[in-house]
Design brief:
Chain lengths: 337, 337, 337, 337
């Protein structure tokens, strides 16, 4: 950590800053320039996570040098994390596609997606039973009933399931049914929920918050990891920008950056990332080309009747066509689907 | 709601869209232009909150005409909502300043802020016992112990208290201690938590999410109102933009817009809105000039030792000086503090 | 165009809005709903480009239905525009890679990039002689001298050149040397410059402004087209967001959207789009997968000595490796490089 | 400047970085930590404006310590710059309001604004004769004819005028007519234009670009100052964010920040900053409360017939009422209008 001092401090004022730094167990190293004096604070600057130095008298600004997260960082673990779920390995050479409806609406509706996505090559079934909806007047999901329909579709197709949990109080019931727990974008900084899933022994997919920086995203993953659960999948799903043609702006550069900074698998959700089914195929392909380990794609047999996110859902035939293109691109890059 | 059709549809295709609109109990009214045919869907378009029409075949786009929220809208209730808390009226002529430390750290530390802010004219004491922190390695708050220190400061100063609740499971304990419940920016779309506070009979301050539109903000307030609790205070606290000089960009235009669209009181938090104590006074003054009904300001007797948000906390003497300026501006605009 | 009226207007007030609409040569079509009356303004709403209706008494808001641009729209011309430059066809099956240094620094430095990028398969040479620099103290480019070095490299390698023009007063000299004129992101709304290049008979690459919407981008292209020059190449180069890991956020969803809305070729610039050479390969691959017709890539033989944009420049060997991967992905998707 | 090295470098690699730093005339000061070695580069880091160090082998990142601008900085000149125009002092105790129509449309239309704004207390007349319009089909301004109407209104009212220049080729004619040259937001990084106005001896109002950081804004002012012209007024006019209720998000925190970092006068434009006339009064008041030295306000006698920006123009009576409130707030804060 670099501490930049205001110009014109007395030796005594500088000494007080040095003392403060040393009180945290760090060493202070002074460099006096013509216009500014700076202090290098040497040691584990995470001890100073609360960064109170910025409000210390005489301090102009504080520049961190080290990353504030540790367990999820590539420096902590060089090798990619591989997560095994029902025999599938996530984070290795094989790219996984998790597909299915946005919301679970009925037993049949789930099957109508699950069967064709399985045939087309998807390896996981996605579907929401607890839904975070912007308006209180929107469909809020079927709850446990919805989970049971997912479980039924798993029995029929053999696809393991991934579904969202919104509330620590629902964690028991969701845990019983699902193979992967999903934390949605709106809950990326629901720290209580992160702490709870961190205590479980089940993979968690953590979606990037709508306006989360990559650093905040990794710190949220660190919340889970620091409780003991290291089976974390990161998912880029679009960030909020000024552009209105798309629901969000899919930040694909996050994929190679996350792969550099962290050892965790990285997925892309082109459905939420664009909000438009016609943009899902090009952005799914681009996600794979950017190095993603997997995709999360909304598929609905009748998008025009869907109770949520119809406009961004692919029909099964379009999904099957996309899977063929994805395979070609994956192979061109030395991976497989 | 206006439904814009794609060019070149057959009469039968148009008819199917009309049927779909009518199936929701709305009337369909066609206008045929040279380049596009549009349909006005007349009636309560909130029935279509799930907006599946956008994925209906032949539909190019859907333009809503009415606001998606109702109970919190100025159209629903013309007169300003006035919320009474321990004899204080929030939302009327008097502007309220809620001040105190970011985090509760000790019994003394709370008092060291509470006593001077009371003397300077603040009418409520703020302080956090459950803290949402970006890093798992940061101070997470004292929990119920912290609440008891706030209650103690209330006894000493007579100031009612406002404190944040993060988790539905903590609601009972926070409810017992606090006079106003605060929902933080990170939880603005924690819909389960909104639903729970909506069932209580205690005022709620709802802070705008870091990247929430004004419409999403009002929809989150609608979640609370639709459960029965109408004592809601809205708080602008800065939005995320590309600018890095400030922690957030305080969007003061949200104040007059919220006052137009809604009957609820509107506060401004210049501490989180800027992240810098030196910007708190000008932005507090600007907030009042823009029409805010109150302010939320962080005050700490020793910001350089604070366990959170030191850089944005005012010292008590600076806070007292600000209160004098605030009074002058409030009076110039026909209000009082 | 839909004109939404405020609630509670008298018939006379409504009539005045109707008259105003008709004064522009449009037809007005009323729909009276329970909560709002709306008017469909039928005809060429581009006649109302100045949108004064929003400030007409009684009008709540105006919702455009048609796109405000015409000549560059896919509706105006179904088939892709193919631009021929020295025998190369841009916008067809073949993907073009334009590569070279950010700034022209010397005759040798240009050659040191031009020769290896030609060998690796690039079809155009890029390089800046007039440089838009954020600081007045940064290197501003060699001007005409730089153009002559580019021309020399063209002679040696046979690669046609693309270079930026900043000022209408430089247009003559740049025109004499270059094969494609580039309008940079900072000049996307330099309407005088757009108008001038619109009068020329030479292809123009127009880069998206740092915070331009897709609609504004296409309106800037319309400026060029409306003066007669239809040889326009659009280039996505990253937009400004809150994320700080990258210099800009490359908005790859702009690629399929622009291809839908317009018939013009669409390029991607992963160098400016990320600001980091290590992110150029994954984002170049992703750009192709998203459907781009070409790439603009900065290559420098000694990035550590470059006078501008060193951190985002690839070395020739890394560029050659990337070209191999690009070919594989292009072929997988039925295109070629 | 702090240079952070990658972990695990050899002494020789470190030595090469040191040599490179010293080759620019700076001194290098090493600090070796447990996880990273950093080098303090001591001296005038503006010599390194081109920042090629980031791409030097072994360098992880470069953290600047000093501001990249100089002449416009508060460190260079402690006292506020006061600019005299026709006897008016801009930047002192008195707050100036510059008002008038967005576009000059006719001799009468200018007078219909100029006379009442003068009566209400405005001290300058604003109006555009060269207009930067998003669409080529919008009204582009009257050019020199418009300038002559402004000059006529100046004769009648005695108000000095401010008007925009878009193109270096128009600078002569605009210079002849106007008292203050305005550089609009879209041209904030039109460096050729900045350089040209920097050579003149006439005040320049520089508006912040739509997505410019405060640092980039000050660097653009530095372009003007470095050519010799120090009579620069900065103007905040709203930045682009995701919020759609307003045309831009007026960033009022920029006002106190610019006053801290620079000695130049700072204005606020609440008309462009919001895009809505009904938000102009609260945001004008807030601008003054935040410490602005003046305001730029659009006034039109018939906004519903305006050829540009009607929705954000105040009528003369509303402007007069606002001026009364502005005076009260200015006085409350020890200033005058």
């Amino acid at each position: 950590m670099i501490v930049v001092l205001k110009p014109g401090l007395t030796q005594e004022e500088i000494h007080k800053v040095v003392e403060r730094i040393e009180s945290f167990g760090l060493r202070a190293h002074l460099s006096e320039g013509k216009e500014r004096t700076i202090i290098g604070a040497i040691g584990d600057e995470r001890l100073l996570a609360d960064q109170t130095l910025e409000s210390f008298p005489g301090v102009e600004k504080v520049l961190p040098i080290l990353k504030p997260y540790k367990l999820v960082s590539r420096e902590f673990q060089r090798a990619n994390t591989i997560i095994e779920v029902n025999g599938h390995k996530i984070g290795g050479k094989k790219i996984h596609v998790m597909a299915g409806p946005c919301s679970v609406e009925s037993k049949n509706q789930v099957l109508e997606s699950a069967v064709p996505v399985k045939e087309a090559g998807a390896t996981f079934l996605r579907g929401g039973a607890f839904k975070p909806r912007t308006s209180p007047y929107s469909f809020q999901g079927l709850g446990e009933e919805g989970l049971s329909y997912l479980a039924h579709a798993r029995e029929v197709t053999g696809l393991p399931i991934i579904t969202e949990v919104l509330d620590p109080r629902d964690l028991d019931v969701v845990y019983r049914y699902t193979d992967i727990l999903q934390i949605g974008a709106r809950n990326m900084q629901n720290f209580k929920l992160l702490t709870e899933v961190g205590k479980l022994n089940k993979p968690v997919m953590l979606k990037r918050g709508m306006s989360a920086t990559i650093q905040e995203f990794l710190l949220s993953a660190e919340y889970i990891a620091s409780e003991g659960n290291r089976k974390i999948i990161l998912c880029e799903r679009g960030i909020r920008t000024y552009e209105t043609e798309t629901r969000n702006t899919l930040d694909l550069s996050a994929v190679p950056i996350l792969k550099q900074l962290s050892h965790l698998p990285v997925f892309v959700d082109p459905s939420h990332g664009t909000g438009r089914w016609d943009l899902v195929p090009p952005m799914a392909l681009a996600g794979i080309a950017a190095g993603a380990d997997g995709l999360l794609i909304e598929v609905h047999s009748h998008p025009e009747l869907a109770l949520s996110d119809g406009p961004q859902s692919l029909k099964p035939d379009k999904f099957a066509a996309l899977m063929k293109d994805l395979k070609k691109v994956a192979e061109a890059l030395g991976r497989e689907i």
